[in-house]
Amino acid sequence: MIKLDFVVGISMYLVLFLCIVFCVWLISRKEKDRGVYLDERLVWFCTVCAYTYFTSRQEAISVCPRCSSYNKK
Ligand SMILES: [Zn+2]
């Protein structure tokens, strides 16, 4: 009986551990999705040279790194 309790204990521990890992994975995946959503707002498309570029800040006007023309959202 002691051996069986030990196996059950290990199994419970493993299931609990897997649940924690799954929860952490879900949370990290959600945060990654949120990051992608924020990044999309920082993507700029140049209307002059059709160049796609990124900015680190959310601005109303940005300068294209390729043709140096101003782009407005
Ligand atoms: Zn451009």
Protein architecture, described:
The protein is α+β, with helices and mostly antiparallel strands and 73 residues long. It folds into two domains: 1-40; 43-73. 53% of the residues lie in helices and 16% in strands. The protein is built from one helix and four strands. The chain has one helix at residues 2-40, and strands at residues 43-45, 52-54, 61-63, 70-72. It has a two-stranded antiparallel ribbon with strand order 1-2. Strands 3-4 form a two-stranded antiparallel ribbon. A hairpin with a 6-residue loop joins strand 3 (61-63) and strand 4. The longest helix has 39 residues, at 2-40. The termini are far apart. The mean pLDDT is 84. The structure holds zinc ion. Zinc ion is lined by residues 46, 48-49, 51, 64, 66-67, 69.
Q: Percent helix among the residues?
A: 40-55%
**Discrete helix count:** 1
Coarse shape? rod-shaped
Query: In this structure, how is the largest beta sheet organized?
Result: 2 strands, antiparallel
Content of β-strand: 15-25%
User: What is the structural class?
Assistant: alpha+beta
Number of strands: 4
Mean pLDDT across residues = 84
- The value of Rg in angstroms is 25 Å
This entry's quaternary arrangement is single chain
Hetero groups bound? zinc ion
Spatial order of the strands forming the largest sheet: 1-2
User: Which spans of ≥5 residues are poorly predicted at pLDDT below 50?
Assistant: none
Number of domains: 2
Q: What order do the helices and strands follow?
A: HEEEE
What is the straight-line distance between the termini? 70 Å
